[in-house]
Every structure is written in C-alpha cells, then in structure tokens.
C-alpha cells in the first residue's frame, strides 16, 4: 500500500491507510496510547493499544510507519483520528532531545536555535519560514518567466569585485588571486548584452564586511533581475512593483496557513508604491523628525523613519527612494544630472530590501565612470570591453531574500531566515 499524507486522511474516512512521519507527542493512558504523528503536511492523532510493544519507551521524534483505519473522532487537531493496526519504527531516537520542540512556542535563544538547527526547524512555526521562502522564490521565478526573462547562473568565483569597496573574500585560485562574488552584477549585464535582453538569477553571494548586525549575513541570497530596452529607472521600479504584487497574491493563495500560524498579516499594495527623490526624503526627515541625513545616505534610523512617513502619508508599507548621489552608487550606475544617478532603493517596513537602477551602456561613459571612482578599467576589461559592441539601454535590481523574509514575518534577526546562516562567528552547521 502506498503512503498517504496526513493532509489527505479526511478523504479516506473508514479506509485503511499507511502514514509515515515523526512522533510529535506521546500520551499514555491506562489501556491505550495517543501518538501525535507529524509529516510535512500536518499532524494526526493515532490511537494505539498498549499491548503493542513498540510504544513502550517510544521517544518523541522517532520516525514511524503506521497502518490503520481512519475513523471519525473529534480531537484538538482534526475531526478524525487513526485507529492503529500496526506500527513500525523506521528510525529510533537514541538520546534525549537537546531542545523541546513540541511546545506551542520555541522559547530558546537564537544561538541555541541555530546550533540545533535541524531540530528547531521541525518546530511548526520555524518550519513555516522556509515554506514561505519557497513561495516567494517560486513567485519571483514564475512572474519573470512569464514576462520573458530567462534564468541564468553566474560565476561565484570572480577576478574582481563588482560593487566596489573592500568587502571581498579573497581566495587562492591556483596561485592567482580570486574572490567570492559579491553580486552577479557584471555577468547579468553581460547576459543582457549577449542578446537575452531579460535575465534573472537567484543565487548566493558573499560579503566580507566585518558587520555584525541583525540585517547582514556574510553569505546571502540575492534575487536579481536585469532587462534591456528600458527608457529609464522608472521601468525597473514598475517591474518590481508588478513582481511584488504577484508574490503577494501567491502568498495569499498558498501561504495563508503559514501566515496564520505565525500570526502575521500578508502586506498589501493597494496603490502605486510612492517614489520620492533622495533629496526630498532628506527634507522630509529633517522637517518631520528633526533627523539630519549625512553622507548622502540613509542610515537604519533614516530608513525606519521614512517608512513611518510612508505609512502615515501614503498608507504604504513600501517606499522607493530614487536619485541617490553618484558618490554613493557603484561605477556601473547611470548618472542623472551632475551629481545624481538613475538609481533607487526600495524600503519595506523600515529597512532597505532592494537596490536597483539604470546602468551605463555607453563604453566611453563607463570608462570615465571607473576613473571617477578611482578604479582602473583595464582590470575589468572582460566586462568593460563588452560595451564596445552594442549594448542596449538596460537596468535591473537585487532583492535580499533573507532580509525580505525577515521583514515580511516580523523576525528581528536575519540569521533566523537563513537555514544555515554564515556570519563572523558561525561556520557550522
Ligand atoms: P546595506 O546598505 O543594507 O548594507 P547594500 O547597499 O550593501 O545594503 P546592495 O549591495 O545594494 O546592498 O544589495 C542589494 C540588496 O541585497 C540589499 O537591499 C539587501 O536586501 C541585500 N543585501 C546586501 N548585502 C547583504 C548582506 N550582507 N546580508 C543580507 N542581505 C544583503
């Protein structure tokens, strides 16, 4: 007989089935024992006669194969239960669990949670995080594929950093210097230039920043897209907005159970996401919150206050900030006027989740931009030379998946939205 998922038991009332899963809880009464069995689709109460020798000494989280008949029976989980005919242990638990995972809330520190990652992920509420992640990633892929984008896979070992700065992990690559990629930037532009016009990638990237914050990881997942034949950066924001609407729709269709479990509301985009220029944002912060913006950039407090403003003024949990200064954006960014750029960030619930913009597609302008940044373009020749051979106007964006997920679910530390986070002190599991 084939295995039935717990989710489908209700359709099998009074029928014989085999289910398989983990022992979530055991409650022994005088003549019978209740075992709550859990599989990827849900939980069910199984009723076992105490004469069955297997139940004696059965530990939580053992893996069982259970056959029996689905019977009507109201309990805290379902309107049915399983009257067990036979039990088989597929994998036994050797020692006491280091953390208790069958409680309503997983009340342990973040470190304990991450040290015992596989067990903590078995907790329903932690398990839900990566189910939601899957819906987001699938939504991103689905929307872009429908819009004519193709998925690409770019190298993670590179000769030069794409984002400037020093936050690069250096490798010894057969006695040459190489680095772990900070982003797919050059390669996604090169694939646009190769004639694909519209490309996307969901990949892991690496930042060697010494930061130890609740919003940075040293390895993170970037959802990137890049598209050609745009008018300007507004087209990129349009596509991000449509893509986010698609993902939110999908979360409503497929993620409601998880969101309910986590007691979190799915955000809404009811009107166009407001777009304000950086200078205007700085003025808003000064006039409304007496917050002075320095260094042409928003710090975390600035982002938080601007989100507050967007909520009050536009009833929006999202806000685009555009036209960042040239000083603050990488060399590939299309300039606007003397000091500005055709760039934007998207801020969601108080934190930046996206950077994007139009890129330079003119060879001479690109060479000049490298010079302005004090970089030798010859060190980047395999990228820069592409622009000698006809590259259309284009642009794109990057969304940090773990950061988006954390903000979406109201999780304070980004380490919790990475299954196996990498930070300065964490290299295992
Ligand atoms: P921040 O200013 O928050 O450090 P950034 O400007 O360095 O971010 P970008 O290089 O513009 O980030 O990357 C685009 C997106 O990728 C960010 O909006 C963020 O969502 C995500 N991201 C970047 N660096 C990290 C990181 N170290 N950990 C997690 N996510 C990151």
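^ Assign residues to that structure.
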């Amino acid at each position: 007989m084939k295995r039935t998922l717990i989710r489908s038991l209700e359709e099998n009332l009074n029928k014989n089935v085999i289910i398989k899963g983990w022992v979530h809880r055991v409650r022994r009464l005088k003549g019978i024992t209740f075992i709550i069995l859990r599989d990827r689709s849900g939980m069910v109460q199984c009723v076992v006669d105490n004469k069955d020798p297997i139940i004696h000494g059965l530990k939580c989280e053992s893996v069982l194969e259970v056959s029996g008949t689905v019977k009507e029976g109201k309990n805290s989980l379902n309107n049915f239960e399983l009257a067990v005919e036979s039990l088989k242990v597929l994998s036994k638990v050797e020692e006491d669990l280091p953390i208790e995972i069958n409680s309503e809330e997983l009340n342990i520190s973040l470190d304990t949670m991450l040290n015992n990652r596989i067990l903590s992920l078995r907790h329903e509420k932690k398990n839900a995080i990566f189910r939601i992640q899957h819906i987001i990633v699938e939504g991103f892929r689905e929307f872009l594929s429908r819009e004519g984008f193709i998925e690409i896979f770019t190298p993670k070992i590179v000769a030069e950093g794409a984002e400037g700065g020093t936050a690069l992990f250096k490798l010894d690559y057969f006695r040459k210097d190489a680095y772990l990629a900070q982003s797919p930037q050059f390669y996604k532009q090169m694939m646009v230039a190769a004639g694909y016009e519209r490309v996307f990638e969901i990949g892991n990237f690496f930042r060697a920043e010494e930061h130890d914050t609740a919003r940075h990881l040293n390895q993170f997942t970037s959802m990137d897209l890049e598209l050609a034949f745009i008018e300007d950066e507004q087209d990129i924001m349009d596509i991000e907005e449509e893509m986010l609407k698609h993902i939110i729709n999908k979360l409503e269709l497929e993620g409601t159970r998880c969101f309910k479990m986590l007691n979190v509301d799915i955000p809404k985009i009811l009107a166009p996401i407001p777009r304000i220029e950086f200078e205007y944002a700085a003025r808003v912060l000064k006039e409304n919150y007496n917050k002075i913006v320095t260094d042409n950039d928003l710090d975390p407090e600035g982002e938080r206050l601007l989100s507050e403003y967007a909520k009050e003024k536009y009833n929006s949990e999202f806000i685009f900030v555009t036209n960042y200064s040239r000083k603050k954006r990488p060399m590939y960014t299309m300039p606007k006027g003397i000091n500005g750029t055709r760039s934007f960030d998207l801020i969601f619930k108080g934190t930046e989740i996206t950077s994007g913009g139009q890129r330079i597609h003119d060879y001479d302008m690109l060479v000049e931009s490298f010079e302005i940044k004090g970089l030798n373009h010859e060190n980047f020749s395999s990228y820069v030379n592409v622009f000698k051979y006809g590259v259309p106007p284009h642009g794109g964006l990057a969304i940090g998946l773990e950061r988006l997920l954390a903000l979406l679910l109201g999780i304070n530390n980004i380490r919790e939205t990475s299954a196996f986070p990498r930070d300065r002190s964490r290299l295992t599991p």
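The mean pLDDT is 96.
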